[in-house]
Amino acid sequence: MATVITGRDVSFTIDGESYSAQTTSATLSNEHTVETYQTLSGRVHRAIDDQWTFDVEMLADWGAASSLNEAMWSACESAPNTTLEVVLTAATGATFTFDVFPVFPSVGGTAPDAQTVTMSFVVDGVPTESFS
Amino acid sequence: MTIQADIREPLKDALSGVAANVYDHVPESVIAPFCAITYSSPMMEPNLINQAVVKVKLNFLIQAAVAMLSNPAALDNLEQLIISILGAMPSGYIVESVSAPGIISVGASDLLSASIAVSTYYQETE
Fold first, then answer.
1. Which A residues in the span 11-40 are in contact with B, Cβ-Cβ below 8 Å?
2. What is the pLDDT of residues A92-117, one digit of tens each?
3. What global pTM score does this model have?
4. Quick one: closest CA in A to B45, which residue?
5. ipTM summary value
6. For residue B11, what is the domain's CATH number?
7. Which of the residues A4, A107, A126, A128 has the least number of beta carbons within 10 Å of its own beta carbon?
8. A111 domain residue, yes or no
């Protein structure tokens, strides 16, 4: 039987706060930059940079007690250059820890749907993985 | 806590001001005009991450019905009932569309009825 994990296996915290109960999608992705050099002996490829991004889509919770959206807004407003630790669990036994810069959540929505918030975080450095 | 206590009962209470009998379930017998909170399909949609937290989208149909008197009077009464229900919907509900009116038979009575599709989220708590 093939191993199947789903989005329901994903959970994460930002700065110790669990965002999972409001989140519909959370994705850590990497833009891997590889330069190609044409040399006298042929083409040579070298990886020169990695830019990691953490994208979150969630149901808005403005106005709620302990609002996650309000906490993120306040963090970005008060300390935009202070990173926040994210612990992302893809499935049991696969955890990724990294730091992100806070971002202002998007605000508003389209009738009649539930208001949603999208946040795209720039990751500071490289995630640390833990596989067990 | 349950869906009945956290969702259906509060929704019924929010609609209690409309000029109709309000039920948070399908009643065994009804007195028109009425509105009844029923489910549409899918009944529940688990569409959030993290299986450790049971939080689902609930899809409801609010069935509004009025006595089938003359056609114009019944339609007018149903329109007024629907508008009053829409005005009484509490926050936290996605209010979608209203179905075309149709005649339903309950016991010996014909009723003019339409369904309002609404949805909300429920999170299981201890």
1. 11, 18, 20-26
2. 999 999 999 999 999 999 999 999 99
3. 0.87
4. A24
5. 0.80
6. 3.30.70.1700
7. A4
8. yes
